[in-house]
Amino acid sequence: MNTKSIIFANLFLMSFMLFGCYKDKSDKLYPTIGVCDTTTVSYASTIAPILSKNCLDAGCHTAANPNGAIQLNDYANTILTVPNNKLINALRWTAGGSRNMPASGKINDCDINKVQAWINRGAKNN
Fold first, then answer.
1. What's the CA gap between 54 and 93, in Å, rounded?
2. Range of the domain at 111
3. How many CA atoms lie within 13 A of 62 on its CB side?
4. Whole-number Å distance between alpha carbons of 78 and 44
5. φ, ψ for residue 76 (rounded to 5)?
6. What's residue 20's pLDDT?
7. Which of 1, 53, 72, 95 measures 20 to 30 Å from 64, CA to CA?
């Protein structure tokens, strides 16, 4: 192979590598990555696990912890003891009169959006 052929082959390969997949979008290739589904939110399957993982598993907002003044261990306690705006503000870390929760660090935005969607739909026990 002569020098011109090698240069041409290299340019062809480089242009293919640079421009071959320029139209590929990650949301088209991997549609579930980065998507937060707030359309199928229910207390039992979505909200209770979020509260359990972030508020109960650390031993904070349970009946067994007298220092966790607000108990979030079931639907009745969640709805009756915490006004919805206070719950979402504490989770968003815009507490406005209450504490930012959980104290261990802010939960991910997707989980916060799921709680907000549940509240927006009437915070039902479903």
1. 14
2. 43-120
3. 12
4. 12
5. -60, -45
6. 59
7. 95
Instruction: Write down the pLDDT at residue 30.
Output: 58
Tokens of 78: 């969640």
Number of other residues whose CB lies within 10 A of the CB of residue 118: 22
Is the separation of the CB atoms in 87 and 81 below 8 Å?
Answer: no
* CA gap 64, 108 in Å, rounded: 26
> Would you state the structure tokens that stand for residue 73, as one six-digit string?
């261990």
Q: What is the rounded distance in angstroms from the CA atom of residue 25 to the CA atom of residue 50?
A: 31
- pTM greater than 0.85 (yes/no): no
**Per the domain annotation, does 125 fall within a domain?**
no
End-to-end C-alpha distance for the chain, whole angstroms: 72
In a domain, 50, yes or no: yes
Query: Containing H/E element for 77?
Result: helix 75-81
Task: For 40-93, write each residue's pLDDT tens digit.
Answer: 999 999 999 999 898 887 778 877 776 656 788 888 877 766 777 788 888 888
Query: Considering the domain boundaries, does residue 110 fall inside one?
Result: yes
- What does 79-110 look like in DSSP terms, one character per residue? HHHS-HHHHHHHHHT--SSS--S-TT-PPPHH
